[in-house]
Design a protein that fits this description.
Blueprint (H helix, E strand, L loop, with lengths): L34 H13 L14 H13 L3 E5 L2 H11 L7 E5 L5 H8 L3 E5 L9 H6 L5 E4 L11 H11 L2 E5 L7 E2 L2 E2 L6 E5 L12 E5 L2 H11 L24 H38 L3 E2 L12 E5 L3 H13 L4 E3 L15 H4 L25 H8 L1 E5 L6 H16 L2
Parallel strand pairs: 2-3, 2-4, 4-5, 5-8
Antiparallel strand pairs: 1-9, 6-7, 8-9, 10-11, 11-13, 12-13
Helix pairs in contact: 1-8, 2-8, 3-4, 3-7, 8-12
The structure holds pyridoxal-5'-phosphate.
């Protein structure tokens, strides 16, 4: 082909890709691990205090320090570090007394771990649609409430906050608990208040794919002291003694503790959080503005924001006018070297969409059929139960916004996306 260097030819049609250097992988905190995390881990190893509650020396606990720093960072009364985000969610539900027989309303678009945590607590998940913010739809949530509903579980998906005013109002009206799943939105906020601190309890993940990371880990916050104590006991088997909890209030739990090695990494990552957020927000604003006219001209629309100033900036999402064109846009963007994903396709397994949760749809837990046996209502799941969610996600194009993009890469993402959208 003699025309391959013509800049107007899409890479998918044989043109030259617009993005010249490969984009950084989407591990925001993970890509920023450096000597500071190394040093912090070495301190733990050298001190031989690998367990948070004791060791041969009497140095400080990194996990303790992490909890205090995080509570202060987000403005929460109490913070508990856990072994994972799933563990944090489970401990929050158990701490709130949610268990067998109860229903918990979760969005149909979230990582499958949200549903798994509800089941781990012994309750059953009820799926509600998401709206054009790709967050739990308050109207559909209200319509799913029964006398067995115990809690609402909004998820701050893809770095942006759920509609906390309206979901909170529903929870209050019906006397329900509210747990926030902020696994994907650590550091984000809703009208000035940090996500995770708005409900009764908020859970975050420090798994490697999240904004900041220690490989595996979780954080749990609350302002409610008795709730904090129940979560603490649940996460530490029955170590109520070391937590000065009176005998008659002691409860059995499991072990969801975070190790000092992980705490050492997470503590350093927390200090990098605001810089990572600032970088993602800056790049996202530049891309969003740069492609705005092209988005509008092809009939696409940006995802709605419940609190735009509290967005963490990790993803820019727009909806194509029709599902048919979405695959073509994704293919063309990828060929240009842009990191783009369609958020739902029936043929591509993605555990963020309930459609691809066969274990839930067929009610399979390890104790078959577990929590559904203890539940007196009739809950059935099927692949088409949340059509609005599938319709929105099927038209949704997500561009990853790494904090480590260079200005040149940002400019190339803008150029490539405009070129692709203009050709649609
Ligand atoms: C990652 C994630 C979780 C689970 O966190 P883990 O630390 O992997 O257990 C829960 N909910 C959402 C929305 C997530 O993205």
């Amino acid at each position: 082909m003699s025309m391959v260097h013509d800049e107007s030819i899409l890479a998918i049609d044989g043109g030259t890709p617009t993005v010249t250097d490969p984009l950084p992988p989407m591990y925001p905190g993970g890509m920023r691990l450096d000597r500071r995390e190394e040093e912090s881990v070495l301190q733990v190893v050298r001190s031989r205090r690998l367990f948070r509650y004791y060791g041969p020396g009497d140095g400080e606990s990194k996990v303790d320090e992490l909890e205090q720093a995080f509570a202060q960072h987000v403005g929460a009364g109490y913070c508990l570090a856990t072994s994972s985000g799933t563990a944090a969610l489970t401990a929050a539900l158990v701490g709130l007394g949610v268990g067998p027989g109860d229903e918990v309303i979760i969005p149909a678009y979230t990582f499958i771990a949200t549903a798994a945590a509800v089941l781990a607590a012994g309750a059953v998940p009820v799926l509600a649609e998401v709206d054009e913010s790709l967050q739990l739809d308050p109207n559909d949530t209200a319509s799913k409430i029964t006398e067995r509903t115990a809690a609402l579980l909004p998820v701050h998906m893809r770095g942006t906050p759920a509609d906390m005013d309206r979901i909170g109002a529903i929870a209050r009206r019906h006397g329900l608990a509210m747990v926030e799943d902020a696994a994907q939105a650590i550091g984000g906020s809703y009208h000035g208040q940090r996500v995770g601190t708005i409900g009764d309890a908020g859970a975050y993940s420090l798994q490697f794919n999240k904004i900041i990371t220690c490989g595996e880990g979780g954080l749990l916050v609350t302002n409610d002291k008795p709730l904090y104590q129940r979560m603490l006991m649940y996460h530490d088997v029955n170590a109520a003694m070391r937590h000065q909890i009176p005998v008659e209030e002691q409860r059995l739990g499991v072990n969801l503790r975070l190790s000092e090695l992980q705490g050492a990494v997470a503590l350093v990552q927390l200090r990098k959080l605001e810089t990572i957020l600032a970088d993602m927000r800056r790049h996202k604003a530049a891309v969003k503005e740069g492609i705005a006219t092209a988005v509008e001209a092809c009939g696409a629309r940006y995802r709605q924001m419940n609190s735009a100033d509290g967005d963490t900036g990790l993803a820019l999402i727009f909806f194509m006018p029709a599902e048919a064109r979405t695959d073509r846009v994704i293919g063309a963007l990828r060929a240009e070297g842009v990191s783009a994903n369609r958020l739902f396709s029936p043929d591509r397994v993605d555990h963020h969409v309930y459609y691809h949760w066969p274990s839930l749809l067929e009610k399979r837990t390890c104790t078959v059929p577990g929590p559904w046996n203890w539940h007196t209502g009739s809950i059935e799941y099927h692949k088409d139960m949340c059509p609005r969610t599938l319709g929105l996600l099927g038209r949704a194009v997500q561009l990853d916004i790494s904090p480590d993009l260079t200005d040149r890469q940002v400019a190339q993402i803008v150029e490539a996306t405009r070129k692709v959208l203009d050709s649609m």
